[in-house]
User: Fold this.
Amino acid sequence: MKPGPFRYHAPESLDAAVALLAELGDEAKVLGGGQSLVPLLAMRLATVDHLVDVGRIAAMKGYERRGDTLVVGASTPDVRLERAADVAVAVPLLARATPLIGHAQIRNRGTVGGSLAHADPAAEYPAVASALDAELELRSHRGTRTVPAAEFFLGVWTTCLEPDEVLAAIHFPIWAGRVGCRVGFGVREFGRRHGDFAIAGAVTAVELDGAGVIARCAIALFGLGPTPLRAGSAEKALLGSRPGELDAETVGQLAVGDAHDPPEDLHGPPEYRLRVGAAMAAAAWKDAVEEASSA
Amino acid sequence: MTAARFVGQRLPRREDARLLTGSGAYVDDVVRPGMLHAAFVRSDVARGRIVAVDTTAALALPGVVAVLTAADLNGLTHDVWVDYLGPGVDPTPFRVLADGDVRFVGDPIAIVVAESRYLAEDGCALVEVEIEAEQAVVDMDVAVAAGAPLVHPELDSNVAVRVPAADDPELDAIFASAAHVVTETFTQHRHVCSPMETRGLVSEWDPWRGELVVWLSTQGPHGARGFLARALGVPENRVRVIMGDVGGGFGQKMFMVPEELAVVLAGKHLGRPLKWIEDRRENLMAGLHARDDRVTLSVAVDAEGHILGIRGELLENLGSFAAPGSASGMFVGMVMPGPYRIPRFGFSSRSVYTNTCGRGAYRGPWMMETLAREQMMDVVAAAVGLDPLELRRRNVLTAADLPYTTATGLGYEDVTTAETLEQAAAMLGYADLRAEQERARVDGRLLGIGLALYVEPSALSMGSLSSEAARVSVSVNGQVQAVMSSASHGQSVETTVAQVVADELGIDVGDVTVLQGDTAATPYGGGTGGSRSAVQVSGAARDAAQQLRAKMIEIAAEALEAAPGDLEIVDGAVSVAGAPGSSIAVAEIARIAYTQPERLPPGTDMGLEAQARFRPSAPFTWSTSCHACLCEVDPVTGAVEIKRYVVSEDCGVMINPMVVEGQIAGGVVQGIGGMLYEHMAYDADGTPLSTTFVDYLLPTAAEVPTIEYGHIETPASTNPGGYRGMGEGGAIGSPPAVVNAVCDALRVRITEQPLSPAVVAGAIARRNAT
Amino acid sequence: MPESDLSLTVNGAPRAGRVEDRRTLADFLREDCRLTGTHLGCEHGVCGACTVLLDGDAVRSCLMFAVQADGAQVTTVEGLGGAGGELSPVQEAFRAEHGLQCGFCTPGFVVSVTAFLRDHPDPSDAEIRDGLSGNLCRCTGYQGIVAAVKRAAQVES
Assistant:
């Protein structure tokens, strides 16, 4: 299974990358870690005339804390986030979601930006971005625009990225405990085998205020629709309540109530995915609450 | 009588050094001067008429050397048949490339030859094929229905082989009067062997010598040689097949497939060496599939659970272009009574064609008999209110029953069915586990125990698989080489044969090398498959080594002026037993044999070379095994975790227990994979849905438990070494053990697989609703 | 066909040349460098038979283009043993525990395990199985492989 011919470009700056994309238009595709794109090229399910590898752009690699935000370069390999103690402190969801991605060999090459731009409905990072209302920084020769996660993911493998745009960085809000507040997080997923794409999964975050009331919460589901799904109804019901007033199972049921378009495939019918999704949401919610309560 | 110093030892393998360091020689490692590369254009329609194939654009691509179709190649074949069956026996049509019509998705239509595989695939993308699609026959029931379109229009039926049910008034009477009659239908889904190395070959025709050389990833180089010679109309003594290191086969590589013949024909036609390496998508889509059966069983039982009679009916899916001998109906019926006392047995079967990829062999190709029977044992147990172990205990053949002839005419001399069953139960701690299961159920946890007991018809000895040969020689320096008729594709023959030969000759195992795989150097053999190697390959090595030993003793007796009966060979030297002072080294004996005829005993020929061809004394050598599985099912997700897996088995004398356990383990994990993860699925139009490893799910190390082994060694009577074959057994016993465990956990019988989490969750939900 | 210059280090030796842009790293290693120990089992990034070390990280060489490895240090299975042909501790452990049969998946496992044990010198059984889950084997049922990793972990500690 060999890919069709293409010309490879490895710009060393973001400016050079967007200039190339402007020039090449539809004939070009951005290459991140290649863990999703290269199989498609090998199977000739996708053909490109030009590949623009953004993996050598130093400005797109690495992360830095800016106030209440962790800014992660889109070409940062997953494995860097997996191993970074400061990321685990600043944005625990990133550190906890990363080991669930595929296998070590994939994480060594796959990038955060690549995963977000590929927008697989069952991927973990899009759900993390969605849960945290991350802001995605898109660059083109026209300049920079910032798009919230809720507007970035449009459908299966579809984002709002224009053909000449590159996802340059992602701004993840840091849920540090505000004074008197405690935070907790959870990531749970279920797949056929270790490292497989999730049949369904959930990412949760909760902040308890000084009185132990839920001041903020987020539940994002993945594998249950064409894009990551914020479980708005569940979040609304939880805000202002105390942990335990709504038991975890109920939270899970409420969460999947917002999943109106679960996929159907060889792995199971829609009802099954919802059932698993509810269980994952319940477990992830329980994890988050336990963490926040004991903080 | 020689002492076993190496046989029975867990000797590390000599294959490993080269394989661990990346120095193996697999077929894709072969590079020949001027070699070109092939790729195939394949049908994306399951059934249809080929309207047009336009190769113009492909041929115009720089680097593409040729694009050949049926018109170019099919007429070049002479006689196409395999040694195993002989001419005119296999009803399934064979054609090199699709000719006028296509009969399954993946059917090869054209072969593109180019300077690289990259360019060949570019060429394939430019070949324009127009097919008028017709309604495909995908379902077996549709295929056998009256008026069904014919998968192979040149035949008059979609039923390739029918074994009708015999009239049996006695069996009828048994059913009429039995205390219980239990009937159930079991389905097994379609699998793909999926060896980690796909198929491949490099074919080179030398016009000056009139010789064909083919490097082939195969399980049977001699079979391939004969097949190619006949197919090309080239004398067999001008055909050489080289089987180097092979990355697994499991049955898929036992016979050659049309693509391989297309490559050989194309290479000869173009006058260039030609390589084709099947890619994974091709292997999954078109590389021969396996299993895909349905069996209905009716069992008549008395009030105490003793089986009085069984009636069975099989429907098996041959796909379109099945490999030779793939119709297993007769064999399934013959073996099905298995390890139990079954007084009366009736069976019928139909093997049918469909517009899907053809069926080939896969590790225990007849194993539907065990999958159906062992599930049925649990169903019958539930129906009569007995624990599944107890039902088996009441019906299993014991030592007192032997020798035993089954209702299907098979003779068991020395199987240890009851013993392996009891050992499995003891190893598992069956009674304790049943108690634990009850306690767990109270906590809402679903534990399940599954058993599967079977006998394996190993060392298949019939037709071209009747015998194996070895040429063992001691070189003039005193080292030994064993040249074997069949070669490993993972089963460690280089090591196990050396162990056997070293023991027979009284030398160090390090002084024996084993040569295998090249038809130019090795005697005729049937190939590695059918669990034959331990019995037949090692049997031949043993015989030849014994001949050599006798001659070495004779020569030594002359040199030492001793009686042959007083001599023994220890550590590479022959001496009088108990008087090691006077001895003669094997190296010295060899020098005498090759260079000093005057020192030979009168009447003894020169040389230390022996050839033996071994045929076991029965067409089957029976092995026995009982698998026991403990699983836990997640009540919400339906996920199945295998917590414990026990294999209690008797494969006779074990040459290398480490190799035996490795073979068992590989088969067990294939069974776990098959029942829980793997599924070669087709849609209603005959389009395969699992054509990459993203969809055809093989288990990883994270999905399997540590397997526990219990060995019983009852020497077989069919061969002097006492070996029994067992290579396929792991994959025969594990599917029913796993299925029975899951059904036991759910207290629901699910008769279709794979038992994906969704299927299991669905069964739990349905049970909870009732 | 578009081509690019390439210069990298493979098993400590410098390699330079010109390759087609679409040529995978796996094919470059196997055919251009004649290092055939790296195997192709699926060419879509699942089986792990093609695993090599890229600047020390285990990666699927079928999912990389050779040009992407420009300037990198690549280690294949051929580069793991000793200079005199001795087996590495991981290779020795695989041999001792019968962690291979047909050998086709083996180079990928050996490379992956070498990196894994370097990063997880004292792994639990669960961590071992997790660490192995990116490589497929069809012959061994993983029994000997898991045992080999445990043995190699003990030896190296």
Q: What stands out?
A: The mean pLDDT of chain B is 96.
